[in-house]
Design goal:
The chain has 331 residues and is α+β, with helices and mostly antiparallel strands. The protein is 31% helix and 35% strand. It has eight helices and 19 strands.
Length: 331
């Protein structure tokens, strides 16, 4: 049996759930380290016979694998490089439309008229259970966490380097002399000159958090302005700002497929697991919500492995109640 056939058999076994933990780890490493193997994996996945593998199981397995590897069938760095060159060759609006097609993102149009000139807002979403990476027209890099949305306008390079964020994103912003970069969240604006930082602004959490890894940012809410230095984290909660020194790299660990929790409520932990693994988790005891949890998981671990680990350290147990549905109860 040649190498390709062996690889194909492993891929089929993966989707059928027949690989051991070691075999699955070997497959993931193979796909991660070799672009040809990744492309061949995607080719095999497209050729799978739905009669042989249940459709829901296939979608479920692939969603989890894609989350583990942070890959997309439409997105490749090389294609991104080609796309960025097109901004020089065609009009800005045409280039943005082409970017939408090449990257395969889900964009929506929000039209606003300003003195006979239309401003088009483009929206990209990271679905539940997945993460998304994109390059903005100025070259800035953005990683979107699960269930997050980012909007930017077609006049982005005409003095309007402004994005709107709901959810969580990690930014690496390109410096442009005299043109600040602004991230607008429901709670406040983050003004940037060129830096690396993480913003968490999920609507269902009771706070908005900005962590500065490198550079300088200003947080602005109305007339109130707070300057952040590298290594500082700002939390806006109960209409108040709190700034403290912290391990800010923890805030971006999700980008590198690692979940690093530091004194979060169990309610928040469960919500994040639902987003990352695209599952529904019900807690039958409301008192579990306020348990404080700290711990680190790698995204290579399955939802089963994560829940098994949690129930070893907390007074909880779980069981599966349906397709991608779990119930957690107190021991």
């Amino acid at each position: 049996m040649d190498q390709k056939q062996i690889f194909k058999e492993k891929v089929l076994s993966y989707f059928q759930g027949n690989l051991t933990v070691d075999e699955e780890a070997e497959l993931l490493t193979w796909i991660k380290e070799d672009s040809k193997s990744r492309d061949f994996f995607l080719k095999v996945k497209k050729e799978l016979n739905p009669d042989e593998i249940h459709h829901e199981l296939l979608a479920d397995s692939y969603s989890e694998l894609r989350n583990k590897l942070f890959i997309s069938e439409q997105f490749r760095a090389s294609r991104l490089g080609k796309t960025r060159k097109l901004y020089v060759q065609v009009s800005k609006i045409a280039a943005l439309l082409l970017l939408a097609v090449v990257l395969g993102f889900s964009f929506s149009w929000l039209m606003t008229s300003h003195q006979q000139k239309d401003v088009v807002w483009f929206e990209t979403n990271a679905p539940r259970g997945e993460k998304t990476r994109l390059t903005l027209p100025d070259g800035s890099q953005v990683w979107l966490n699960s269930e997050s949305t980012l909007l930017f306008a077609n006049n982005f390079l005409d003095g309007n380097r402004e994005v709107k964020l709901t959810g969580e994103a990690y930014f690496e912003v390109e410096k442009m002399h005299g043109l600040p970069f602004v991230v607008k969240t429901p709670s406040y604006d983050v003004r940037v000159l060129g830096t690396k930082f993480n913003v968490m602004a999920y609507k269902d959490f009771d706070r908005t958090v900005t962590s500065l890894i490198e550079g300088h940012v200003q947080i602005k809410k109305g007339q109130q302005i707070v300057d952040l230095k590298p290594g500082q984290m700002l939390t806006y909660q109960n209409k108040q700002f709190l700034v403290k020194q912290t391990n800010t790299t923890r805030s971006r660990s999700w980008k590198d497929d690692k979940f690093d929790f530091d004194h979060v409520t169990f309610k928040e932990l469960v919500t994040r697991l639902e987003r990352w693994y695209d599952v529904d988790i019900k807690m039958d005891d409301p008192s579990l919500n306020d348990i404080i949890f700290s711990g680190v998981f790698k995204n290579e671990e399955t939802i089963w492995q994560v829940l098994n680990s949690i129930q070893m350290t907390l007074p909880i147990k779980y069981y599966r109640s349906g397709f991608r549905e779990f119930v957690i109860e107190r021991k």
